[in-house]
Specification:
Layout: E1 3-7, E2 10-12, E3 18-25, E4 34-39, E5 46-52, E6 58-61, E7 69-74, E8 79-84, E9 93-99, H1 109-113, E10 120-121, E11 125-129
Parallel strand pairs: 2-11
Antiparallel strand pairs: 1-3, 3-8, 4-5, 4-9, 5-6, 7-8, 9-10, 9-11
Length: about 130
């Protein structure tokens, strides 16, 4: 049983930064691929970024966040972070982290395109970018 909890959301001005965290219980995340998604009310869930490999060797970013967001692992805290810089109002959403029921999957664009293939989800953290 894997439980994921997101944190770090909040209100930030355009151009500002936030760091989101996805902390797991029930297992270590070292061998699990972790993906971040976001969703605005009334719109489809959008893949943001993912990471896999115990050393975080495989990462992928949606075109909309490339160059602005960075995903990383903190093994000591069993946590995956999403550093978000140069935020704009279009980044406003509820952000979720998710993983597959089994370890060993590799982060890829396909993973971000198919949120329905992921089994464990956090409840989300709200990010609001506004002046």
């Amino acid at each position: 049983q894997v439980q994921l909890v997101e944190s770090g959301g909040g209100l930030v001005q355009p151009g500002g930064s936030l760091r989101l965290s996805c902390t797991a219980s029930g297992t270590t995340l070292d061998y699990y691929a972790i993906a971040w998604f976001r969703q605005v009310h009334g719109k489809e869930r959008e893949g943001v970024s993912c990471i896999s490999g115990s050393d975080g060797s495989s990462t992928y970013y949606a075109d909309s966040v490339k160059g602005r967001f960075t995903i990383s692992r903190d093994k000591d805290k069993n946590t995956v972070h999403l550093q978000m810089n140069s935020l704009n109002p279009d980044d406003t959403a509820v952000y979720y982290c998710a993983t597959h029921r089994r370890p060993g999957y590799v982060c890829s664009g396909s993973m971000l395109d198919h949120y329905y293939g992921l089994d464990y989800w956090g409840k989300g953290t709200v990010v609001t970018v506004s002046s």
